[in-house]
Specification:
Peptidase_C40; alpha+beta; 2 domains; 61% helix; protease; single chain; two-stranded parallel sheet; thiol protease; six-stranded antiparallel beta sheet; 352 residues; hydrolase
């Protein structure tokens, strides 16, 4: 009897233990782990390294292109200044020429001694009334002659000033043109480097297994995320609406994106224009600490050096330790761990 009770107790204990183990197993959630550059097959590790290299090259191209655009804008502005200054100079020269004849006449009259003065007017007058008339006429002539000389001086000074302005503007235009030419070559060189990096990356992608390729594509997150009221949430919802979009180098939407293109496009939907590359976006808004992140903040990643000049990736924080980003070729715009590649450098709050 005692033996049967002992067996029943043992069976009950074993059953209870099994239920407890099962309960613990069910309670453990399936947590999506951030990508570990050191994990996976050799092909996957190569893909991840080449992806980072290509992202850096892409960022170099975007930065160089933005600088080229600025220099071209400076060149256009300088050309407009040259045209305006030359127009002012031409008008001033025309005024100067028009007045030159009258100035010459006055100079000739003074040389011949034909200009009257008050004494000659008195001596030549038949009566006091005639003297007053002659004196008034002299005053008018003197005032008129003075205005002619003043106008001529102003026209000459204006022409000289306009000529100087035009020459300075032409110098700036030439400097801007030279800088733009150098930058254009720099952009072309960086683009060639990017094309090579992307080519290597695509080769590495082709070496991945079917399972690895499928893992890069999804599944796409379908959760709901809310930011603070206003532009930050508008930008966040815009970015979330692009989940599942393909990654394309240098693309700013609306159908395909690279990392900074997604954040640029999202904030543009909120009426806010930010730069089109991640290094320049780092200089927008205000810095926020990691423990103060809120949805809509931009989070940045570098090469591990801690240098903003080495930033090569940006995402948008959605809350709960996650971000939405356009990671690299072969992967889709999606919500994923905010740890990224582990080289987090900081965050910026664009509004608020």
């Amino acid at each position: 009897m005692a033996l049967r009770q002992l067996k029943r107790s043992m069976r009950s204990a074993v059953s209870a233990s099994a239920v407890a183990v099962a309960a613990v197993s069910v309670a453990l959630p399936a947590v999506a782990q951030p990508s570990d550059p050191g994990s996976g097959s050799a092909e996957m590790r190569r893909y991840k390294q080449l992806s980072e290299d290509a992202s850096k090259a892409n960022e170099d191209v975007l930065v160089a292109q933005d600088e080229l655009d600025r220099k071209r804008a400076e060149l256009d502005a300088a050309k407009a200044q040259v045209a305006a200054a030359r127009s002012v100079e031409q008008q001033s020269r025309a005024d100067e020429t028009r007045l030159q004849g009258r100035v010459d006449e006055l100079a000739g009259a003074a040389y011949r001694g034909s200009r009257l003065n008050g004494l000659s007017a008195l001596l030549a007058s038949e009566n006091p009334d005639a003297f007053l008339d002659r004196a008034t006429a002299l005053e008018v002539m003197a005032a008129d002659n003075g205005e002619v000389l003043s106008s001529y001086a102003r026209a000459s000074a204006s022409a000289a000033e306009a000529r100087g302005t035009a020459e300075s503007a032409e110098l700036r235009a030439q400097e801007a043109a030279d800088a733009a030419a150098r930058l254009l070559e720099d952009v072309r060189n960086r683009k060639r480097d990017l094309d090579k990096q992307v080519g290597d990356l695509r080769e590495a992608m082709n070496e991945l297994s079917s399972e690895e390729k499928a893992g890069l594509k999804g599944p796409v997150d379908s959760g709901s995320y809310l930011g603070p009221p206003g532009a930050a949430n508008t930008a966040l919802q815009a970015a979330l609406s692009k989940r599942g979009s393909e990654y394309v180098w240098g693309s700013k939407g609306p159908g395909t994106f690279d990392c900074s293109g997604l954040t640029y496009w999202a904030y543009k939907q909120a009426g806010i224009t930010i730069p089109g590359n991640s290094r320049a976006q780092w200089g927008v808004g205000r810095p926020v600490s990691k423990d103060q992140l809120q949805p809509g903040d931009l989070i940045f990643f570098d090469d591990g050096s801690g240098s903003p000049s080495k930033i090569h990736h940006v995402g948008m924080y959605v809350g709960g330790g996650k971000m939405i980003d356009a990671p690299t070729e072969g992967q889709l715009v999606d919500v994923r761990s905010a740890k990224g590649d582990g080289h987090y450098i900081g965050a910026r709050r664009i509004v608020g």
